[in-house]
Amino acid sequence: xxxxxxxxxxxxxxxxxxxxxxxxxxxxxxxxxxxxxxxxxxxxxxxxxxxxxxxxxxxxxxxxxxxxxxxxxxxxxxxxxxxxxxxxxxxxxxxxxxxxxxxxxxxxxxxxxxxxxxxxxxxxxxxxxxxxxxxxxxxxxxxxxxxxxxxxxxxxxxxxxxxxxxxxxxxxxxxxxxxxxxxxxxxxxxxxxxxxxxxxxxxxxxxxxxxxxxxxxxxxxxxxxxxxxxxxxxxxxxxxxxxxxxxxxxxxxxxxxxxxxxxxxxxxxxxxxxxxxxxxxxxxxxxxxxxxxxxxxxxxxxxxxxxxxxxxxxxxxxxxxxxxxxxxxxxxxxxxxxxxxxxxxxxxxxxxxxxxxxxxxxxxxxxxxxxxxxxxxxxxxxxxxxxxxxxxxxxxxxxxxxxxxxxxxxxxxxxxxxxxxxxxxxxxxxxxxxxxxxxxxxxxxxxxxxxxxxxxxxxxxxxxxxxxxxxxxxxxxxxxxxxxxxxxxxxxxxxxxxxxxxxxxxxxxxxxxxxxxxxxxxxxxxxxxxxxxxxxxxxxxxxxxxxxxxxxxxxxxxxxxxxxxxxxxxxxxxxxxxxxxxxxxxxxxxxxxxxxxxxxxxxx
Length: 604
Description:
The chain is mainly alpha-helical. The protein is built from 27 helices and no strands.
């Protein structure tokens, strides 16, 4: 996520890796030498803002000859040739190609990252997730219920904190990572094969949701534990950290773009289960490097395991939050599968969100608790109406005569590729025009702009664009361009501030907790949105002549647009008045619970 903030310099490195030369990028400030240091720094490391970094710490890929000369005159400690030689040496590290990465980190790590990040996370997720709504449509699942199921299947991503805690505290046969990846991958591959080959008549809706849940569990487990592995390797050789991150994220996004381009034609010609069938092989590739121990794990002795548990217990507050989040996600998963009532699921979601909000606010340092509270509240009230909107866009003329009748290829591949490209434009414009804004200013401006452009959904749902003579495809593509760009501006400051709120020494745990809380908010928003749709009687399910189900969809869209905007009144109290390049925590601040309400009550 931090890499996305500074994607342009990394795209330059990707160009070096692929083509052997970089395009001219003069007068641009680079990211820190290793973005991952923000999340997984050693105890003595410091994160230096690229806007405030001394020239000696700037990325040599972004320093031209004039800057080298200026630096030599300013330092007074070495001449121009020494500066060029130093930068040339660093450049060889940061622009390392695949062969150099193999020499530094070993081919085993690169293969492991290829099968887990590029194939499983990048390709398979982008290839299968757009098909889920079309499978629900085969079962005639109403829009609100489809949203509840969607929230359930994404809950494993909110379970990342407890997954990391369990893998560290309870190794299998002395191994922390490989057994857990193998076990969840086996379940994920079997679940994918079940969706692909078992006919609808023999695969109940409950079993379908459980299969999708297991696929997400494989993705979240593999993602977390391989991240931990390459973080360990990057700490050993930080000079090559940016090159390794380029390899990971360039391959991940490349796989996602290929999948997005292919999913539409595959859906159109072979149906929504075909992508799951084609995904079995890339999901299964992970077993080969795991069996050959490409993670290069050594079995831990009993003494080492006890020492690890002792260290984890020293962070008892963080461990407690992990366990609490686990029970909350399990409860929401059970209710979402067993009960179709939107009232029950929405009530349970609100209760879990309230418990998490109170627990995090009591246990964590006030500045961390406030920021977490803002994003949890805003994410939760930003209700989702995608379940009903999907039917609005894709219903046939027999089902919804007045609808836009988008084809599967247009809805998945064309709009998906357009959104992906516009997201990159949003990253670019953020880096060059908004990265120096304050958190409050950017969150205020981006939320207001996003709400304004989201009003275009109301025009579409009321079919006003047709009355104005604007074709549905052109109107939706134009709205997608604007909202995708602005959404990046809204998302980026949240990622940056969360990374800044991770104290040294517990970066991974704290970031997993904050991100997990945010993912939990997405499920809450889906369940609340399902309730709103049910109350407004917007429950399309792909039946014939269901135009009446969309009569009040515009009202649900208006609520979804306005609710997040109302949370902006909390900005002065919950978000610090600081620039995105400012430090929020002190360098020596290593305790995420210091000064918390709990510590004050206990007198600690």
